UniProtKB/TrEMBL annotation:
Entry superkingdom: Bacteria
Record-level Gene Ontology MF annotations: structural constituent of ribosome
Protein family membership: Belongs to the bacterial ribosomal protein bL33 family.
CC per GO annotation: cytosolic large ribosomal subunit
GO biological process terms held by the UniProt record: translation
UniProtKB keywords: Ribonucleoprotein, Ribosomal protein
PANTHER family for this protein: 54S RIBOSOMAL PROTEIN L39, MITOCHONDRIAL, LARGE RIBOSOMAL SUBUNIT PROTEIN BL33M
Protein name: Large ribosomal subunit protein bL33
NCBIfam families in the cross-refs: PRK00595.1, rpmG_bact
Amino acid sequence: MARDGTRPIIKPKSTAGTGYAYVTRENHRNTPERLVLRKFDPKVRRHVEYREER
């Protein structure tokens, strides 16, 4: 399968300031704005917001 630019790999980083990041893919056609996820940060041991950095 060919990889195109519609689903690039992104790395949302933790807003807790720990530097922890997840790796995922995002469809730019469906969500053109920056992605914000609420996921678990193991360094602070709680759920925090992760914001996409390009």
